[in-house]
Amino acid sequence: MSAPQLNRALGLRLVIVVVIGNILGSGVYKKVAPMAAELHSSGWILICWVLGGIITLFGALSNAEVAGLLADTGGDYAYFRKIYNRFFAFIFGWSLFTVIQTATIASLAYVFAQSLASIVSLPPVLTSLADFNLAGVFYPFADFNVKLTAILLITLLTWLNTKGIKTSASVSTAILALVFIGIFVIVAFGLAHSPKSLGSVVSTQTTDPGHSVTLSSIFTGMLSAFWAYQGWASIGYIGGEVKDAKRNIPRGIAVGVFIIIALYLLVNTTYLSLLSIPQLEQIYKTGNQITAIEAVRSFWGTNGALFISVLILVTTLGCTNASILSGCRPYFAMAREGLFFSKAAELNEARVPANSLLFQGVWSCLLVLSGTFDQLTDMIIFAVFIYYGATTLGVFILRKRMPDAPRPYKVWGYPIVPAIMILFCIALVINTTFARPREAAIGLVLMLTGVPMYLWFNRKERAVLQQEPA
């Protein structure tokens, strides 16, 4: 008797919704502040958003060719298994579990909790342990009321996602509709109340005369932009649940990323027209303020701050849900090949990998306790761009290995576009290693824990095969 299969329930519209839902989260509201602290220039901030969007689009188009050729449940995990080998595919899947996807879920839930705390007063929890730390890096009980709220959100959405992928995607659709309405309200009213001219907003002059914008500061500033763009590749993880996946996944990725680039430029131009660079730097220094709230507060007062806080709640709720929905599928694919905990290979009555969702949810909750929002996101970007580069390199490998295979989509600008993406990934990983050594080191250590785990899973699988009757 064959194992139960995933349900192919998502058409092109819902694919686009899942792509946008995985991208549009906390970055659009928060990340302009750390960019201001790094660049000290509104014009250079906008340039970084444009560059980040272009590089993201190059990566998305390259990924779309690979997805069109190899679309399957697990996304890049399935691609890497066919392009490279089983070991590299496992290290990617393990990196998703330890850093990339679970830290994304933790970060989004954390911002949701911060936004809720700005609306209602969360009762203090375990304040006596706030200074407890591990190696002076991790403070698990600092702001524990916020962290506990984030953990409760992850738990609730993990349970919701066990009810079926169509239910989860429908929730994301409804949330996205509310988010787009709210963002366009902010843009329209914000630009109408702006005290600045467009020329001053796009000026590349720095507010700090002693500061010059360097290539390294541009790369570091772009870490923030890339966090906001992060998530587009997640649609590949649910390839086994997409109708006509080899056509709909490439189309959905391209359309979704184009929409996000335009939206981010509009929103961040609005923020920069309402707040000065020194104000944004101060927001960054406080650590617990959100740029979007302060921008709307500047022209709508307390009611505006309440409006944007609710909008951030809704947005991060939607993105957390989309990330949970797609994130657990690679572990399911790995478990079916004996490369993850065997329970993760089981489907429930709704044909959903419920145990894989559970493993993902537990580790995401632990990561909530591990650090601050910016610490988590820098870890993610360092790790994920290693694999973005590997996927893009796969375009060249597959063109040579499978030249005559039918490709529903071929990357525009080949070979220049994928080559630029690969070179950029290398440069960003090197720069992050020097600019954010702690976050890079933590991310790398978590990824490398996959080496002994691979050996352990392999040994377990061989033992099972030896016990089976010939």
TrEMBL record:
Subcellular localization(s) per the UniProt record: Membrane
Transmembrane parts of this sequence: 12-29, 41-61, 87-112, 132-159, 171-192, 212-229, 249-267, 306-332, 352-373, 379-399, 411-434, 440-457
GO molecular function: L-amino acid transmembrane transporter activity
Membrane topology, record value: Multi-pass membrane protein
Signal peptide: none
Assigned GO CC terms: membrane
Main location: membrane
Keywords assigned by UniProt, alphabetized: Membrane, Transmembrane, Transmembrane helix
Pfam families reported in the protein's UniProt record: AA_permease_2 (PF13520)
Record keyword Translocase present: no
Origin: domain of life: Bacteria
PANTHER family per UniProt: AMINO ACID TRANSPORTER (PTHR11785), SOBREMESA, ISOFORM B (PTHR11785:SF512)
Name of the protein this chain belongs to: Amino acid permease
Organism: Hymenobacter crusticola
